[in-house]
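Ticket #4471: structure export looks truncated?
Reporter: QA, pipeline team
Priority: medium

Steps to reproduce: submit the single chain below to the structure queue and open the exported record.
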Amino acid sequence: LGGVDGVAIMLDTKDPDEIIKTVKLLQPSFGGVNLEDLSQPKCFRILDTLRAECEIPIWHDDQQGTATVTLGGLINALKVVRKKIGEVSIAFIGCGASNVAISRLIYSYGANPALCRMVDSKGILHKGRTDIELRKAEFVDKWKLCNITNAEQRTGGIADALRGADVCIALSTPGPDVLRKEWISAMAKDSIVFACANPIPEMWPWDAKEAGAVVVATGRSDFPNQVNNSLGFPGIFRGTLDVRAKTITDEMCIAAAVAMAEMAEEKGLSPDYIMPLMDEWEVFPREAVAVAMKAQEQGIARLTLTAEEEFKYASAIIKRSRDLTQSMMKEGFIPEAEE
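Actual output as written to the record:
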């Protein structure tokens, strides 16, 4: 998808310090590292430490990839319902690595955390959550969210968090009954629902629409508006590697999200089309350009390329990779995926 060669490296450890040490020792051999399957809360410490201390870009797709694609979809969903990012109330259902990272990126883009609410398994986050405060050294990000979100200090569960919200972003447990129709009906007019649990979303899209949601996104390819990490990281890595960037910043992720959103907008937005489809592969070189330009702007790129040069180079290498894969599948060197 991005024309990037990858090598899988498995580590026989769950110790954050061992993981950090291993990645730092391996970094001279690679252009970048994509971390996978790290549990919360250690995933935040591992990523933040490696981003600060490594000379190559370190990426955690569960956090950054999900956040980038979700932001890209949200940008266009808000355009469909004619609402502004700085004025909307967002209810984040689920407080795992993905939703914490999503919230951080969305706040960086311009959402007001004071208007937003986050829900974990014990209820809405607020300053009185002593269970989190007592472990704030471990759950640094979660405790910070207790203090910057939910200005009205609302308590309760999912239903209470959704009441009056403009947007629901759910990455919690598979449904379909995690979110209920009456809760969606209690949201603000022209609401947006991202129900992204896999393999079954927190609620079925048709139920969300019957309850009043205008735009509904899920993590599934058989429904409109698939929030798929693969829409983000191939183009982001392509642009990062092409200018030899030292890291992948939040600003680079936002640039990729905006590029993704702009491409979908050019094709024509609708409630059932807020982000590119996976076979609209031109999204990847466009993201690569946005990321490469932002890296140069931030002074973390080792090479200098114009937007035109990067688009031409990224398009060529991605097309070559796609053509090679299709030829190998046609000749039987790559077997068809099992149903």
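Status: closed, not a bug. The export was complete when the record was re-opened. Leaving a note from the reviewer for reference: The first strand starts at residue 33 and ends at 35.
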